[in-house]
Amino acid sequence: MSRTGLWDSHAHLDDEAFNEDREQLIAQLEQDMDGIVNPGCDAASSAVAVELAKKYPFIYAAVGWHPENLKGIPADYLQQLAEWAQHPKVVAIGEIGLDYYWKENEPKEVQKRIFLEQVDLAKQFDLPVIIHDRDAHGDMLELFQKEVHGVQAVFHCFSGSLEMAKELAKRGYYFGFGGTSTYKNAKKVREVMQYIPKELLLFETDSPYLTPVPFRGKRNNPGYTEYTARNAAQVLGMEFEELAAIATANTKRLFKKIK
Ligand SMILES: [Zn+2]
Description:
By secondary structure, this protein is an alpha/beta fold. The protein has helices at 22-32, 43-55, 77-85, 108-124, 137-146, 162-170, 187-195, 225-236, 240-254; strands spanning 6-8, 33-39, 59-63, 90-99, 129-134, 153-155, 174-177, 201-203.
């Protein structure tokens, strides 16, 4: 076990924010973390995620097209994802989903179509999906109620309502908690954390973004998972070690290709 016993279930170590010191950082993280899952956001970042996973035993990859990056998506993108999906260290399809926040994103119907195509691919390879849902809670919930079946999922950096969380928890989906859960004004996120069964809770950073307190405003990195997890232990009235062990077991149950 590493120093913390934690997994960061969602970090973008491929991001250019890590170009300066990626190797040194990863050497430190190998001491501190049990593992890291690095999702891709398009072909280029998925390719780097797979390379990092091949190079470092404790790093795993997910591959997919993020809803912000769908302009000009190649016609054969599913074939490329399918190739990667067969690699033993590719543990999920993601991050994929809906993003209605940025007006320049592709229209809702396009986003939904490409999201559902990637969900189908995940099913085909018996992989879970990593969900990005920004300002699209209603449509996302409806998709999971009506169209998405037979695939396991984690709602990364969950920002929906308690009502939505109840619907998702009822169906056994997982929830990723990161830096936002440590922010003073994030009462809703902590309510969801307290409500859901502990067996559905994962920790993450979304590095280099969404840095937890007390480093908010600085570059995030997977090592800061510890601050989110210590805060969560306090919120839930649990020992840190106990909660870390539960979250790690959850991460390995969801991403079942993790060895
Ligand atoms: Zn992300």
